Amino acid sequence: MNKLKRGAGLILLLIGIGELLLLLGGLFIADGPTLHGQQGAATVQFEADRRAVLLPGQCVPVRWQVDGVEAVYLGRDGQGGVGEQSFCLDGTERPTLAVVFVDGSRIAYPLDVVIAVYSLEVWLALTGGLSLVLAGIWLAKIAHYRLIMQGILLVAGLALLAVVALWLIHPGPLVIHETVDDVYIYSSTDRRWLLDGEDCFLLEWDIDPAATVYIRSGVREIHTVASSGEDEYCGYERPYLEVVLPDGRAIHYPAIVPIFVLPQFWAALLLGLALVGVRQWLWSGNASGVRQEARFVLRVAAKTLALLVVFNLLFALLFTDDMAGLSLYNWLVPGRPRFPTNMAEAEAYTVNTNSLPAFFAAHELRQSKPEDEFRVLLLGDSGIWGWHLHPEDTLAAQLTALGLTTDDGRQVQVYNLAGPIPAVDRDILVMDYAQRYDPDLIIWPITKYTLRETETHPLLRENAAEMQALLAGLGSDMTAYDLQLHSSDNPTVLDQTIFANQDLLNEIFRLQLTGVMWGVTGIEAEYGSSYRLIDRSPQRSAAFAAPLDENRLDLLTAWMNEPDQPPILLFNEPIFVQENEDDSGPYNILYDQEPYDAYRALLADRAATNEWSYVDLWDAVTMDEYTDGPLHYSPAGVGQLSAALAPLVLDLANNSIE
Amino acid sequence: MTLTTIAFFIIFALAYRWFLSPNQRGWVLLIASEIFVFWISPALSIPYLDIGLATVTIALTVLVWWVTQSRTASLTTDDKITLVLTIGVVLFLATLRYLLPSWRGLTPALSVWPLLLALVGFGGVLFVTLVITRRFVKPVSAVWLLIALIVLLFIMLKTEPLAEALVTVLHQLTLPEDILPAPLIWIGFSYVAFRWLHILFDWRAGQLPVVSLRETLTYVLFFPAFLAGPIDRVESFSADYRTLPALSVPETTRLLDGGERLLLGILKKFVIADSLTLLALSPATAQHFTSPARGWLLLYIYGIRLFLDFSGYTDIAIGVGILLGIRLPENFTRPYRKANIAAFWRSWHITLSNWVRFYIFAPLSRTLLRRHWPPLLVVFVAQVFSMLIIGLWHGFTWSFAVWGLWHGLGLFMHKVWSDRTRRVYLRLRQKPRLQKVWSVVGWFLTLQFVMLGWVWFVLPDVEQAAQVLLKLFGVGW
Which residue among A269, A280, A514 places its CB closest to the CB of B19? Predict the structure, then answer.
């Protein structure tokens, strides 16, 4: 029997050693994969030095020799017929040689090179081989077998921990590269994940040929960058590149580097620790003590997990959307005069949230309506919201301050429901929600940019069910919207847990905290001491120009023609016009002359056809009253707009009373 | 310290308990603490200063140990192994920069500097200094020289203009002009310096127990307490350290105690204190509160946040210490519930207060009494000076100085008051209800005094702090 066990053990040992040798040798020592191709008279040979790299971001030399073809590309770069290059693997693509033949056909030759730590097969083979070796040694009872097993476990454990350490220090890049309309777009980060909120990563980009590129890092930070370059971002920043193509379309590439590590990392760490630990148990003979303590820790962990599950389920059962409207505002602290959107100020008591109930719960509009109040809601974009303006300088505040009184003796009180990102659908969703606060009139400022073709506004995605119902009611084309991704028509229990709603809960919590500071200080942010007035000289192209979206214009029309809603005063917002060297130059960075003039004519025509209350105020603000953008006004500029609007508001108000 | 750092602490503590044989524990704590000094050092604009400052921290600790050793005693095997291991750790971490680009800090290319710095800084300077101090300098002089050096370094780093001047000089020596100098950050120096001084003062007073190099290094650099204290005493630390081999597994009580303190610390620091940060008094919010009541609210939130933040860190350090088998001293014992300012200072940042009491207050009082100063004046000078030192320990600024004086005067006034009301208080013991009222009034006044003191602490500008203090009482609106 012992002989049998010994024999079986030796066989297992041999198989295990063979498997490990094959695995490690095959991956890192044996020749890499080679591809041969022939197309007519053309020949292609493409090969790599190795079959695998250990970690993402590591590189493998590749060589090619191609004859009788039109062009050769490795990744994004055109190459000669013969070459050698180091190809860095990022986990999303293999080294691929794209060959364009003389007949115009194109064939891609991908080499099968893997990243070892990402490969399940590698993990299985490694664990299996190691287990076979250990089992073989145990069964065969070869001389000093305990010591040898300890040694193997220790070496394997430490090797894995070394991989973990290397991984920590040398994470691979996250690479995007693609060609859109002959524009080659490349973007990469030097990190795949961050250790914590203070950790940073480098974002690199290269657009060829040069195009207009912006980097957005949240609503408050948009800046133009060169066509190629790099910049550092830290912690929770979520920058994304916005590349404007020659036809004006903008494409977004988010650089989301999460603040946690990959499951594979934890697997390697735990396996490494486990191997070292098993070896220690065997060695120290204190296995029972450690087991007992480990069981205790596991019991605590299991109970914690159970409690977590119970709390999540209770939350899922009890939490409703309306509860997001529970708020300290208008109760312990005063309501906000405008939505608490984050401005780029150093010290801001603001929170960006996309929860409509939470949004409105914080607004002063939620207070009950006095009998002598004529309630006016003001929509609009950042200029109307009051970018860089104190609350008392915004359009809503200045209109209210005029003390307009309707014929029936009610005071006109204007509420600011504008938001920094202009979008017609966002405005409609907000107007629809605000109907419950009994408005008497709505002022709806729009500009061509409000009707541009763009990605779905985040507020819409977060309130997809409401938006879908609204669109269906208006008979609009829903396919233009990316709402299905976040649709909550049939939310599962998992969708309603604390985990699934942690961002929302975080926003609501921070909204209350910042509310206390708003209540205590009476300011929303440390406003800058001064703002830069816009330069009127002709130095900008209409880089932000985006085509008008017919779907969104139809949506506006449908909403304006909706019966059973308060009267709406629609107006075209004032815009900055720069001085150009020739008459055909762009008005500003948003608008070229011709499309903008066409938009104004179209809107005026549609308003006349449908008998809307509409006014075009595109030149109502003098050019020296614009601040840092073509739609951002100084307090005096807002005053000019307010003066132009006041009689129209009063007329419409009195007409509605009649 | 971030949650990630704490997660590493926990994994380390469990691995330490479960996987190490008893005799390995002390050594592993030493190596882990030395590595932690390098790990936690931030990248600085001056090339290699991060690794340089970490190396100097370790080298100075060796030097402090060295000058306090008997000149007749030779190095033990334990000391020799410790020295070799320590040099090995420093060289290994310096060498890593050749292999791992992300460990090179702001340096754009490979260079021999890290290794040379480590070799020269640690090996050369330390060796020469060790020999000089042993051969040519009397032990007492060597200790005083070292004390002077540490105090000088402390003043230099804590005085902003001096620190800036130092950075500028280093910057001009090492960097091109287009790179802006960044502030000099010597992580953990405030605590490490006071541990060094504690060893040196105790040696001078003949109270230093015999401690090995390994114990001294681990004591000074002990990673859970490296960043935010507490400032343990070396005799207490080494007593625990020597019992590490006897640390038994399983020992669920220790796990529970340590785990509970850790969780409590995480809750206090990362959940409550961090959430309150936004609401607390700050130089920005101090300009904007719109009524005295709102100002008091911000001030109270600041006081609560500061306590939870600092005591949370201490709880985390104590919790990790318990898991590792080292019992660190308590730093806070319900300070805001104390009925007088003296009791407050016996329960707020206890280890720093004790340090100042042992090494500033007591010797100064004794010296002045020996010179026949009036006792009341001795108390005044000793208390005000001690509290001034506590204030300046946070930074050599006028604000911290005024904060220290505020508390020094408070302590003196309390001393005078308690001396004069001692008989009344003794009589109150017969009347529990009146005594309770007396305590509540004392608690209320102490709390207001402490909270008002935080105005000096939080606002870097003394003038602004004075204005805020007046505004809290309705003056200056």
Answer: A280
Which 8-state DSSP code applies to residue A394?
S
Where is A230: in which H helix or E strand? Answer: strand A228-234
Average pLDDT in chain B = 86
| Alpha-carbon torsion (A261, A263, A267, A268), positive or negative | negative
Residue found under tokens 């402490």: B450
- Contact status, residue A9 vs residue A137, Cβ threshold 8 Å: yes
CA distance A214 to A242: 5
Residue B115 has pLDDT above 60, yes or no: no
**What is d(CA A101, CA A103) in angstroms, rounded to the nearest whole number?**
5
Cβ atoms within 10 Å of A247's Cβ, excluding its own: 7
| Segment A107-135, tens digit of pLDDT | 888 888 888 877 777 877 888 888 888 88
3 state SS of A446: strand
Residue A650 CB contacts under 8 Å (≥ 6 apart), including other chains: A404, A406, A412
Q: Shortest CA distance to A526 belongs to which of A339, A349, A391?
A: A349
Closest-approach residue (CA) in chain A for B280? A517
CB pairs under 8 A between A and B: 85
Which among B393, B413, B264, B255 is positioned nearest to B323, based on CA atoms? B255
- DSSP, collapsed to helix, strand or coil, labels residue B232 as coil
CA B405/CA B387 separation, integer angstroms: 6
CB B2 within 8 A of CB A197: yes
- Interface residues from chain A to B (CB-CB < 8 Å): 169-170, 195-198, 269, 273, 276-277, 280, 283-284, 286, 289-290, 292-294, 296-297, 300, 346-347, 349, 509-510, 513-514, 516-517, 519-523, 526
- Predicted pLDDT of residue B110: 39
Q: Which of A385 and A29 is assigned the larger pLDDT?
A: A385
pLDDT at A483 > cutoff 60: no
How much is the average pLDDT of B234-242?
A: 95
Q: Is it the case that residue A530 has pLDDT exceeding 70? A: no
Radius of gyration of chain A measured on its C-alpha atoms: 32
pLDDT at B224: 94
Q: Are A533 and A627 in contact (CB under 8 A)?
A: yes
Q: How far is CA A227 from CA A184, A215, A416, A454, B95, in A?
A: 11, 11, 38, 22, 38
What pTM was estimated for this model as a whole?
A: 0.72
Q: C-alpha angle A398/A399/A404, rounded to 5°?
A: 130
Cα B465 from Cα B283, distance rounded (Å): 9
Answer whether B21 sits within 8 Å of A170, measured CB to CB.
Answer: no
Give the model's pLDDT for residue A609. 93
Distance separating alpha carbons of residues A435 and B432, to the nearest angstrom: 63
Cβ–Cβ < 8 Å for A225, A231: yes
Question: What's the CA angle centered on A413, arms A408 and A418, to 5 degrees?
Answer: 140
What tens digit of pLDDT does each residue of A278-320 get?
666 555 556 677 777 778 888 888 898 899 899 988 988 887 7
Exposed/middle/buried for residue A80 (C-beta within 10 Å: 0-12, 13-18, 19+): exposed
Query: How far apart are the C-alpha atoms of B409 and B416, rounded to whole Å?
Result: 11
- Contact residues for A146 (Cβ-Cβ < 8 A; gap 6+): A282
Phi-psi region of A141 (alpha: psi -120 to 50; beta: other; left: phi over 0): left
The pLDDT value recorded for residue B197 is 96
Provide the shortest C-alpha distance from residue B254 to chain A (in Å): 11
Mutate to test the interface with B, among A280, A518, A521, A523 (most CBs of B within 10 A): A521
Per-residue model confidence as pLDDT tens digits over B351-392: 999 999 999 999 999 999 999 999 999 999 999 999 999 999
Residue A38 CB contacts under 8 Å (≥ 6 apart), including other chains: A44
Answer yes or no: are the C-beta atoms of B270 and B444 closer than 8 Å. Answer: no
A616-620, B12-16, B114-118, range with greatest mean pLDDT: A616-620
